[in-house]
Automatic annotation (TrEMBL):
InterPro entries reported in the protein's UniProt record: FRG-dom
Name assigned to this protein: FRG domain-containing protein
Signal peptide residue numbers: none
Top-rank taxon, per record: Bacteria
Pfam family, one: FRG
Annotated segments matching region Disordered: 259-285
Source organism per UniProt: Nonomuraea ferruginea
Biased composition, class Basic and acidic residues, residue ranges: 276-285
Residues of the FRG domain: 28-121
SMART domains: FRG
Length: 285
């Protein structure tokens, strides 16, 4: 993937501002969504795919049983609400965590693995959505929205099989905002991506659409500078992961300067917008 190595916080900040400037967009605000990785070598693949084997066939079983046993949770009526809730709590899904905020993404790129290079990724979701199948594009245009809500997705595709059939022979990627399940989702400006098939990975989409995204490599020496700036700005676990888990994570990092907080993830990657206990927000996007 094409990524530019930055040499300082100032260079990165200027690059993000330049990339975020709307160009020929109907939207007044920036149209980018961001994702941070604590290790630049980590891949943009779903937690579902990490089950390996015929993981795509397991998706319906995971969702069905999650809905069955999560009887006290009422996220909404659609499968997209349940997928978002499952992702939020660590259920393996086809979804990936993103955020509208580059600072949130940078938090998750710098809060762990300080001795390794990190990465920041930005995708222009408006341009990405121009490639969607007609029914999905029409729903966005009808609402005048940049990204979908769970209700909007459900109006076009009420189940995952119907969502997949929209692709035909052209797999696609779409972005939607999860319901405000708790303060963490709100504070992280969370966005989720969904691929048209559980077997189709964001990594593949990025490789096929190099003009729709930008990446920045964050050398380990620069991660420390970025981390200090974020802490000064209050972009910390205490804000992004409200509650005792976030407080404990902040204190652990604060009182172990220079040591690698390797987190609790399966592969150590850290992104933005996710759960405090999983890979991407165990990490975030």
């Amino acid at each position: 993937m094409r990524s530019h190595e930055v040499s300082s916080w100032r260079e990165l900040d200027d690059a993000i501002c330049e990339a975020s400037r709307p160009r020929g967009s109907a939207h007044v605000h920036p149209t980018l969504v961001f994702r941070g990785l604590a290790r630049s070598t980590d891949a943009h693949v779903s937690s579902l795919s990490r089950l390996r084997g015929d993981y795509a066939a397991l998706e319906r079983h995971l969702v069905r049983n999650f809905r069955k046993y999560a009887h006290r949770a009422t996220p909404g009526e659609t499968v997209w609400d349940w997928l978002a809730l499952g992702q939020h709590h660590g259920l393996p899904t086809r979804l990936l965590d993103w955020t509208f905020s580059p600072l949130v993404a940078l938090h998750f790129a710098t809060a762990s693995w300080p001795e390794e290079d990190g990465a920041l990724l930005a995708v222009d979701c408006e341009r990405a959505h121009r490639l969607l199948p007609g029914p999905l594009r029409e729903e966005l245009e009808r609402e005048g929205a940049l990204v979908f809500t769970t209700e909007m997705l459900a109006r076009v595709a009420g189940d995952l099989d119907g969502f997949g059939r929209l692709a035909g022979d052209r797999p696609f990627l779409t972005f939607f905002e999860p319901p405000s399940l708790d303060e963490r989702v709100v504070n992280q400006s969370s966005v989720l991506s969904a691929t048209s098939s559980p077997a189709y990975q964001v990594q593949e989409w990025l490789a096929g659409h190099p003009d729709l995204w930008r990446g920045w490599l964050l050398p380990a020496r620069v991660k420390l500078e970025i981390r200090n700036r974020l802490d000064q700005a209050g972009i910390t676990e205490r804000v992004l992961l409200p509650g005792l888990d976030g407080l404990a994570a902040w204190l652990r990092r604060y009182y172990t300067p220079g040591e690698a907080d390797r987190g609790s993830s399966e592969d150590g990657s850290t992104t933005a917008g996710g759960s405090a206990h999983r890979e991407e927000g165990r990490t975030g996007a």
